Each structure stands twice: as C-alpha cells, then as structure tokens.
Amino acid sequence: LGAVIGGGAGYIIGNNMDKQAEEIKGVVPDAEVNRVGEGIELTFNSALLFKINSSELSDSAKASLDKLADIFTKYPETNILVEGHTDDTGSDAFNMQLSEKRAYSVSNYLQSEGVPQDRFTIKWYGENQPKYPNDSEANRIKNRRVELAIVANDTMKQKAKNENKN
Questions:
Q1: What is the pLDDT of residues 103-138, one digit of tens each?
Q2: What is the rounded CA–CA span in Å between residue 30 and residue 68?
Q3: Which of 55, 72, 81, 118 could hold 101 in an S-S bridge, CB 3.0 to 4.6 Å?
Q4: What confidence tens digit (pLDDT) does each residue in 6-21 have?
Q5: What pTM does this model have?
Q6: Strands 120-124 and 78-85, how do they pair?
Q7: Alpha helices in the chain (DSSP H)
Q8: What is the DSSP letter of 55?
C-alpha cells in the first residue's frame, strides 16, 4: 500500500489515515477496514454489494458507497485503488470479466457521487488472488469481494515532508 515515507512525514500521513479509517469504520460497518502501513485496506464482501453473478450495485451498497464518497471527498489528498475478485465458480474468462465489471461499478458509482476520476486506479483479478482456499462455500463467499486501498497522493506526501521540516 504505497511507499514508506519514513520519519515524521510517515507519522503525519499515518495520523491522517488513522482518522480516515475510523470514519470509514463508523459509516461502513459491514466492511473490513484495516490500517496497513501508510494506507487503509477496505474489503467489501461482494454478497453485500452485488447479487450473485451480477455487477449491479444493491441499494444497500449504494447507501454505503454514498457515505464512503463523503469521506473520500473530505480527504482529497488520497488515491484509491479498486480491485475486483471472484471465487473459482465459473470459467476463468467469466470470473475475470465479472471482477472487472464489479471493480468499475464501485469506482463509477463513487465518481458519480463526486470523487474525481483521477484519484482511481482499477484492477481486477478474477479468481487469481483468493484470500482463502476455494474449498467450501463459506470461503468462496469471502473470495467474492471488492477491495479498496486508500493511500496518500503526492500532494499529501509533500505536505507531510514539508510539515516535518518545520
């Protein structure tokens, strides 16, 4: 999740990310939110976002993403990596396409709520990066997910370095 800045600048960025992570946890309780290095990892269970084999966002997903968009707007000096993943049910080609559509559904929705497009990087992996072995339905459900990584952009990094010098 981004390069390590080091020293006081890293502390400043980490403090900013801590605040943002706490706000995200408060408004999106169904997601897994973890502070990792100088960033935030946010994992949505796809079952909460989408119907099976669909990339259309559910109404509850839109409500969560509305709140998330508000936070992203409040913290404009971060970039957002959106990654789509599936389990191993279905063909490789179908899963790759579904994970792409789901990642773009999340990104496009957040953009429609005012988060600028240039803050996003979109990636998709199909079934190629499972978090859990695809050996049970419980694990397959966990592998059907959309992950967001929130990291400091160059502006925040430079501000942190400048504040650290003072």
A1: 999 999 999 999 999 999 999 999 999 999 999 999
A2: 12
A3: 55
A4: 444 577 788 889 999 9
A5: 0.88
A6: parallel
A7: 7-27, 46-49, 59-74, 92-112, 137-143, 154-165
A8: -
30: number of Cβ within 10 Å: 12
Q: CA 38 to CA 89: how far, in whole Å?
A: 34
Helix-helix angle 154-165:7-27, to 10 degrees = 130
- Between the alpha carbon of residue 155 and those of residues 144, 163, 166, the distances in Å are 33, 12, 17
CA dist., res. 124 & res. 65, Å (int): 19
For residue 113, give the nearest of 78, 152, 73, 77 by alpha carbon.
73
The answer to whether 68 and 120 are in contact (CB under 8 A) is: no
55: number of CA atoms within 13 Å, CB side? 21
108 burial type by CB count under 10 A (0-12 exposed, 13-18 middle, 19+ buried): middle
